[in-house]
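Data deposition worksheet. Section B asks for the primary sequence of the deposited chain exactly as it was used as input, without tags or linkers unless they were present during the calculation. Section C holds the resulting structure in token form. Section D is free text for depositor observations; keep each observation to a single sentence. Incomplete worksheets are returned to the depositor.
Section A, Depositor: J.P.
Section B:
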Amino acid sequence: MSANPPSAGSTPAALRVVLLEPEIPPNTGNIARLCAATRVELHLVEPLGFRLDDATLKRAGMDYWRHVDWRRWTSWTALATTIAPGSQIWFIEGGGSHRYDEVRYTAGDWLVFGRETAGLPQSLLEANRARWLRIPMFREEARSLNLSNCVALVVYEALRQIGFPGELR
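Section C:
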């Protein structure tokens, strides 16, 4: 499996999802399927907790991988240096001062999610407090939601706010 560059003349992605050091292949496969269905770019930042030819990754993504516009990055720094100045980057992690539905998303936004077991690095969150978003939780014993569910919640809220560009009817 190799990254799919955008095709010539293709419309820019409405949104971009970044998975920082994802660990669980089926989660990444499900997110790839979501990105294919919504025409959202997917950015995978190493180290990955799996090989890209992992059978469970492929199975979860089914035959959608060929429709995903995705990139692989060696580090957060490598990716961050390519993001245009002024781009809106949102960091989704528990503890943020704003809920994911309280902010204004715009076309081209970057939605950054962390590892399943550790989340996003605290230093990254502290450096971006104004862009740190949370998904509400209601039971302390439930430590977190599944990563693919979190991505789906935020992607669809952002798409709703920007008018579901390119929606099929």
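Section D:
The longest strand covers residues 15-20.
The helical segments are 25-38, 55-61, 76-80, 122-127, 147-161.
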